[in-house]
Write a structure and sequence with these properties.
The complex is a heterodimer of chains A (about 120) and B (about 110). Chain A has strands at about 5, 10-15, 20-25, 30-40, 40-50, 55, 65-70, 75-80, 85-95, 105, 110-115. Chain A is mainly β and about 120 residues long. Chain B is mostly beta strands and about 110 residues long. Chain B contains no helices and 11 strands. Chain B has strands spanning about 5, 10-15, 20-25, 30-40, 45-50, 55-60, 60-65, 70-75, 85-95, 100, 105-110. In chain B, strands 2, 4, 5, 9, 10 and 11 form a 6-stranded mixed β-sheet that branches. In chain B, strands 1-3-8-7-6 form a 5-stranded antiparallel β-sheet, with no helix packed on it. In chain B, a hairpin with a 4-residue loop joins strand 7 (about 60-65) and strand 8. Chain B is globular. The termini of chain B are far apart. The chains are: A mainly beta (about 120), B mainly beta (about 110).
């Protein structure tokens, strides 16, 4: 089983629908992240969380919200999906640098979202 | 604001060639730098991580170097193989409490 699991892997939806992408990890990491990837734009950070009570906006958080339900679970929601949110979404985890680990990032396989 | 640039955007080489991928960043005060590989439609796989105090890291045929003062890192791939064909991304962490900032990647194609 993958250390970082994303569901669903593929989703097609219509404009205005609410969508939730879920991420769970078995690596025991404190830190979790959501990125989106678009052709020509690379990976951009949406939200990140350094522990269950900590949520931070990334560079492109507008139109998205997140929930850190537990140390191992971090979900991304699109309250009212629009076509320019069509992208490949990645969840990632890292350990806590505070305890002298490297903060090396580990990624899930991605969730491809298409908004019609 | 930290910006990460990877040049070239695409590279094609014959099998067996040694090659270098480049990554530059605008703010040299980084905490660490990480190189990833991404196969089409797949997630990112971590290849090498270099701490700011290190000059290089090696894993098999891969060697990554870091020159903080010039804001550059290189990924050296020895004796390239068709299986090395993928997109390679570098990412920098500015401080311990921040997230990684990614370059747009170099897409490598190795022909047999």
């Amino acid at each position: 089983d993958a250390d970082v699991t994303q569901t669903p892997r593929n989703r097609i939806t219509k404009t205005g629908k609410r969508i939730m992408l879920e991420c769970s990890q078995t690596k025991g990491h404190d830190r979790m992240y959501w990125y989106r990837q678009d052709p020509g734009l690379g990976l951009r950070l949406i939200y990140y969380s350094f522990d269950v009570k900590d949520i931070n906006k990334g560079e492109i958080s507008d139109g998205y919200s997140v929930s850190r339900q537990a140390q191992a679970k971090f979900s991304l929601s699109l309250e009212s999906a629009i076509p320019n949110q069509t992208a490949l979404y990645f969840c990632a985890t890292s350990d806590s640098i505070r305890i002298k680990n490297t903060g090396e990032l580990f990624f899930g396989e991605g969730s491809r979202l298409t908004v019609l | 604001k930290q910006e990460v640039t990877q040049i070239p955007a695409a590279l094609s080489v014959p099998e067996g060639e040694n090659l270098v991928l480049n990554c530059s960043f605008t703010d040299s005060a980084i905490y660490n730098l990480q190189w990833f590989r991404q196969d089409p439609g797949k997630g990112l796989t971590s290849l090498l991580l270099i701490q700011s105090s290190q000059r290089e890291q090696t894993s098999g045929r891969l060697n990554a170097s870091l020159d903080k003062s010039s804001g550059r890192s290189t990924l050296y791939i020895a004796a390239s193989q068709p299986g090395d064909s993928a997109t390679y991304l570098c990412a920098v962490r500015h401080q311990a409490g921040t997230a990684l900032i990614f370059g747009k990647g170099t897409t490598l194609s190795v022909s047999s």
